[in-house]
Amino acid sequence: MKKWAPRVLLAAVLTGLSAFLLKGDVWTFWTWWLLAFLMGMVAMPVTGRLFAGFEDKGWMFSKVLAITVTGFLTWLLVSVKILSFTAVTCIGVSLACAVVCGVLYHIQMKKRIDCIPNGKGELIYWEEILFFAFFLMWTYFAGFRPQAYGTEKFMDYGFMEA
Q: What's the CA gap between 119 and 86, in Å, rounded?
């Protein structure tokens, strides 16, 4: 109890802090965090091989890789007009990437290639706490200036209006 109670308390404090700071937007924030977490888990067979020398097998990089690959594939398929940009397209590309990663995981397990950070639960916990805290801070501070200043926000506004 002494070992896991402070960890649960820290996670609860961060969750409560996110609800306090983000108010009505907290559900969107939690959804995005959960999606990044799940996509990172799905991408572990790839990052586990790419970052095999790392203690955590590239756990933090798995989120970046998963979001980048699915985002790029979605953009590519929409840009060459193979698919239209809809929620179904985004979910479909994400599921296709998940299936490919699942097949890779199955192949790696048959060959006895370790691509999951087994026994590194404490390290993964602290990395997730760090990611959650920085994601919360970024989301909170970005909310202070939602206006369309700068080129990126103008492009975002254009895409939303299209």
A: 39
